[in-house]
Amino acid sequence: MHLIIAEKNIAAHRIAQILSGEKNLRMGKEGGVPTYIFEDTVVVGLKGHVVDVDFLPEYADWRSKEYTPRSLIDAPIVKKVTEKKIVDLIRKLGKKADLVTIATDYDTEGELIGKEACEIIRSGNKRVPMLRARFSAITPQEILHAFQQPSVLDLALAAAGEARQEIDLVWGASLTRFISLAARRGGTNILSVGRVQSPTLAMIVDREKEIESFIPEPYWNLRCVTEKDRIVFEVEHAHGRFTQEEEAIAARNRTYAPLVVTEIKESEKLDRPPAPFDTTAFIVAAGRIGFGAGKAMQIAEDLYMNGYISYPRTDNTLYPKTLDISAILRTLRKTEFGSDVRWVEEHRRSSPTHGKKESTDHPPIHPTGQASRQELGEDRWRVYELVVRRFLATLSPDARWKMMKVCLRASEEPYIANGSRLLEPGWRKVYLFSEAQEDPIPSLLEGSTLPLKDVILDAKETQPPPRYSQSRLIQRMEELGLGTKSTRHEVVGKLLSRRYIQGNPVRPTLVGRAVIDALEDYADTITKPEMTQTLDSHMQQIKEKKRTRKDVAEESRYMLQEIFQELEEHREDIGEEIREKIAEEHALGTCPVCGGTLRIRQMKGSGQFIGCSGYPRCTFNINLPGMQWGKAVRTETICPDHSLHHVRLIRKGVRPWEIGCALCTHIASHTESLRLIPMMNESILSRLHARHVYTVTDLTGMGGERLATLLGLTPIEAERLIVEAQEALVLLRKRSDLRKFVRNHLPPRRGRKQTEIMTRMYAAGINDVRSLAHTEPAALKVTGISEKEAEVLLAEGKKLCNDRIFRDIGIPAASRKKYMEANIQAPEELCNLPPVYVSHRTGLSLDTVMRHMEKTCTFIGRKVPSKFSNAVVERGRTGLLSLPGLGDGMLERLYYAGIIGCEDLVKADPRKLAESTGIPESKIREFILSAASHCTG
Length: 937
What we know:
Rossmann fold; alpha+beta; Topoisomerase I, domain 2; 36 helices; 7 domains; seven-stranded antiparallel sheet
């Protein structure tokens, strides 16, 4: 058997389709893992790494005094299975295999994943031959060629991957544990530190400090507005920026009409097409069309796996000679780029453009298969189009521009106008992501004069350096040698997910800044790129077989020991500095009531709110949605009305929920509630808000005397206001109960908002579950609820109301449940039924049922049923069951009709008893005759 191992299931499926020609390809599952079988071949996909590196279990306790963070530096490292089902399957298949081919991605990570799979297979089949299929695209041509000319695993490349894996584990685990413990952070709030992550974060923090410390310097620009052939254009003073206002004003005052053309210089400029995409250039270009780095790479990976583009992780900017560019163009002719492809074929440059970077592992990113907008969907299509058009641009001729420089004078002041016009679009015709901005100047002659329509002196200031966009950050990481083409976007993603940075352009959060500030103060080696550059260059030497994995790993441990020497000397200082700065993370601003600090408070469980630092003296607080909706964090935006930081809820995998100013939201959400108070008017409302009374609950908690003084009301008016507020609070509680009930029983549906449904219910006079339960189904149509949904709501509403009545009567929950299960749902139903029937139906004792019926009938004003002794009931039951043909089922029916013994049966009217029990009259008569005989006997 030939066993083929791919990196992921989607790649395994594609490879199997190509190699089998889709003939006799069987898809199945073994042990829950998809397999693809044809002839004597089985293809299995991994999930990337199926084993991972970790420390021994005894190192798991962060607070262990024996296994300190520093002890992790030299701790033994073991491999742990992370995908047991896959590992078990490839080990099982490996035992049967007489040939294994590794078909993982051809890069450092892919080679290591392949080596891991080989080790698993070798554990059960030591002698099976192992081959390596290398490809840069999952296309028929590439895959067939890779399997026709296989090679062997590059153990040096895999060793470099192992070194990186080991070094990153040791650095990340030991430093993260040290910093988190020093700052007293644990659980989901640990502070992550990493070999590549921390220098990258330091770049962002340092740029933010540059921006904050930047002192703008004033300067002045002088320009004139003129016109020729009805074309209005501007000319700028030849001096450029004036740094002295007096000089700029003097030059303006010396500027008199007319403007005289003194010299015209014309030239042509060739505009060369861009180089082919390597990973970084692709991420930058994708960023310009709105894709974050992580999203862009995720889509590119998907397109690669499905055979639409080549491998997206590459440092190469030179197409290899083996790449059949003409064949790719023929493939693209069949897409909606057909007309652009034909134009490129007609005007194709003699050789494609190229950049400075050249490698032999993978070609630049290029299209490999045809696709349509419909089959890809919008986002995948935009990335595919970007790759296709970049490829076409690299084959296209230069663009050609006409450049013009015009020198002019206004009196003695020199001015310049620069213009440009696109003569031939060249590559810009097919690459639509780089706009050709023309700056036309009308035709002019030396010595000609132009009118001076306006003279403008602009006062400006120098600007601070810009924040890094995600794509520019990745460019800078590449320039500094931080990370690899495969990991840089992942590092940025980790910084975002750990809330060290936010936004795009990115800026550091308080947490991210606190960590870097502490490290820069006490162990700045971690934050400098030189350390990471050194280790990465040595890992590159492992690939080149100039150094060993063990040698580089030991060197990294030595460097880390030196860093810990600094860290441990300043452990308390580091922890205190981080804690002090992170405390600001939850501070929103000044409490409007007492002047303390409003902070986001997160409780154990899922509760969170905004409270005052002056508690318990100051009890002002603002509720927030539970943490199941997202963790509350502050943003840098500040409310202009309340000077409070805005709040955002963040939850993994969903778009953040922007709450904005929590106090604005608090006031807005409760103002409508305050308006439920009949006496409330705009004047009273504004006075309440001015005194920081925002809710009905706040109002009801105030005494009449204090309220009268606070709002300028008479004591009678104040008391009336409080009474009305208490009535409104009762209504609000009922509405809250109704809202929860509706939310629990009305499934969410696109295009329908529950707030609108509740507003319509309130307008229809439905303010609580009881009023809902007694509403006619037709009346609910106006709320936007369907007829079927209305039936469910009404039934469940009645059930809940009755259960609450039973609860108020004093019937225990266990008994209520049994009554409901017996379909006895209303108090009236319980009072109308014979006690013996109820006892038999529910399984409750007769004494219990009688006690409950007495309470219920008294509560609703009904006559209490007659009591029966247990002895009478038991004697009657025995007598009835002794009658021929009368079983337990018929006994229950007789109980329902009030028949509890033979004596009752003999006295009954056969016709009426048959109607009430559903037992045939003839059968009833038989029972009566038998009962009469029984009673006589």
